[in-house]
Structures are given as structure tokens and as C-alpha cells.
Amino acid sequence: xxxxxxxxxxxxxxxxxxxxxxxxxxxxxxxxxxxxxxxxxxxxxxxxxxxxxxxxxxxxxxxxxxxxxxxxxxxxxxxxxxxxxxxxxxxxxxxxxxxxxxxxxxxxxxxxxxxxxxxxxxxxx
Length: 125
Known about the structure:
By secondary structure, the protein is mainly α.
């Protein structure tokens, strides 16, 4: 159940980024938005840890701020993959990706804190 809730939170976060950040657009159905959230989740699950591992030295030197660059890269990669599978999600440049990554991170963190109980978090382990 928590997995579906996280998928819905990511879908809503991506919709908010597309709605409020100029340079990010999504034109499609809500079903496509859930597929986009699934693509985003898969990319963050498999590619982001590898990037974080190799970027550890620069992340350490920048006191963690380079994590924002990694998140922006994940959003750009999500846009590329989504475009290749026919989902109409576009990110037009690095600055919109950076702002979108901040938006998605904040929205996801707040909504996860509100909607996902601590008992659900311990069930996942």
C-alpha cells in the first residue's frame, strides 16, 4: 500500500513541478502521470545511487549542495526517457530542472511526512 501511496505522491509532485516551474511541461492524462511517476521512481532507484556514489567527493566538498545537481540530472533523465516512451513531459534546460528538483523534493517530503505513518515505514523493512 505504501508503494502505491509513494507513486501517487511522486505523480502529484511531478504535476506540481510542471504546473509551477516555467520550463517544465506535462500535457497528458492522469494515467500518463502515474506512468511518468513510475519512470521517475525507477530512475531514482537504479541510477541515482550510482551517481551519488561517484559524486561523493564533490558532494562532500559542497556540503551536500551537489545533491541538488544530481536531483536535477535525474529530472532531466526522466524527461528524456519519458519522451522516448511517448509521455509528453519536457524539461527545457538545467535551471528549470534544478528548480523542478527542488519543488519535487519539497513536495514529496512534506506529503510523505503527512500521509505515510511511521508504522508504514517500519513495515517496508
